[in-house]
Amino acid sequence: MDSKKVKQAAMGIVKKLPVFLFCVLFINGYNWLCGTENSIVGVVILMGMLILIGADLGYHAGQAAISIAVLFAVLAFAPKLSLINPWAGVIVNVVALTGIMIFTGHDLSQSGNLPFTMGYIMLQGYDVTGAVFQKRWISLLVGGVIIGILYYVVHRKTEQKRTIRDLFMENRIASTRTQWYIRLVTTLTLVMLAGELVHFPKTMWICLTVLSLSTPLAAEYKNRMVWRIPATIIGSVVVFTVFEEFVPAQYQVMIILLAGFLSMFITSYFIKTIYNSFSALVTAVLLFPADQAVGIRIVANLIGVAVAMVSIIIFSAVFRKLTQRGCDPQLSV
Predict the structure, then answer these.
(1) ∠152-156-157 over CA atoms, to 5°?
(2) pLDDT at position 134, please?
(3) Rounded CA gap, 280 and 273, in Å?
């Protein structure tokens, strides 16, 4: 590596180090205030802050800011309500996820939906009760208002002619965006229902795999499907054989934080998936023995890949037939 590339790499580290330190301080501060049982909420709020400040949702800034606050309220209560009864949960999941996609997924070049789709799945996967849940919904409501205000401050001068009404009116069955909404919401809802009915220990991991693979662009999800399973296996093996066996307990948190910092420089989906498997399993070994956690992670990803493939094939065929027949009604969902 020549000196120029070394200098560029060093500058990249210097620029991203403050963001990393802020993330560490934010999560530690949140855990101190709300308890480690709610640490996943801190991650969701932090993810929303980092992504939504930079992502333009594609419509009027004031309306988008209000939508952000409302969607964080959805995150506060809908995942909990969906777990009361599997069949009632279908309605809750469809309404909540559809709302999330419509209000945050309009611009396919942005990732504005991720804090909410990933957040919904993770909050559902890490259910809590009592005083812990009270801290959860209060912090999500407060976090949503703060992020909404920050979004408005950053994007208020961006000229947008589109309004919330346009988000509904522009949904057409021939649209790639609308097809993505329908495919993702339907597939996630069915996976959540099946996971509840069979009591799968980590339905969340299946849903996150489906979410990762269910991108609107064919070339992108085909590439991800190729690498998802190999990367998951490698990440799992690293946890089981290296992290658990050779890293002393007193150094494990430091290794996790270091891996999180290094992941900020990774653009490869393959490498990112290795890290995601690693970080997910570190959390899972608190609930399951390490060998069980690895097995569940791999099985969940295999199921997720299979479900995503079947979903893409089926919905592609259905949408192709509908558009060939000239069926292009406006949808108000």
Answers:
(1) 160
(2) 95
(3) 10
Report pLDDT for 298: 79
Q: How many CB atoms lie within 10 A of CB 213?
A: 24
Q: Do 188 and 298 share a domain, yes or no?
A: yes
For the stretch 116-173, pLDDT in tens is 998 999 999 989 999 999 999 999 999 999 999 999 999 998 888 889 999 998 888 8
The parent domain of residue 224 ranges over 173-325
Q: What is the DSSP secondary-structure string of 8-57?
A: HHHHHHHHHHHHHHHHHHHHHHHHHHH-GGGHHHHHHHHHHHHHHHH---
Of the candidates 169, 95, 106, which has an alpha carbon nearest to the alpha carbon of residue 330?
169
Indicate if 96 and 145 belong to the same structural domain.
Answer: yes
C-alpha span between 223 and 283 (Å, rounded): 27
CA distance 232 to 137: 32
- The answer to whether residue 80 is domain-embedded is yes
155 assigned to some structural domain: yes
Last residue within a domain, chosen from 117, 149, 170: 170
Q: Are residues 182 and 94 in the same domain?
A: no
> What pLDDT does 197 receive?
96
224, 288: one domain: yes
**Are residue 312 and residue 282 in the same domain, yes or no?**
yes
Which residues, including other chains, have CB under 8 Å from residue 102's CB and lie 6 or more apart?
Answer: 167, 168, 171, 181, 333
268: left (phi over 0), alpha (psi -120 to 50) or beta: beta
Q: In total, how many domains does the chain have?
A: 2
CB 92 within 8 A of CB 81: yes
Mean pLDDT of the chain: 82
Looking at the domain assignment, is residue 209 inside a domain?
A: yes
Give, to the nearest 10 degrees, the angle between helix 86-104 and helix 61-82. 160
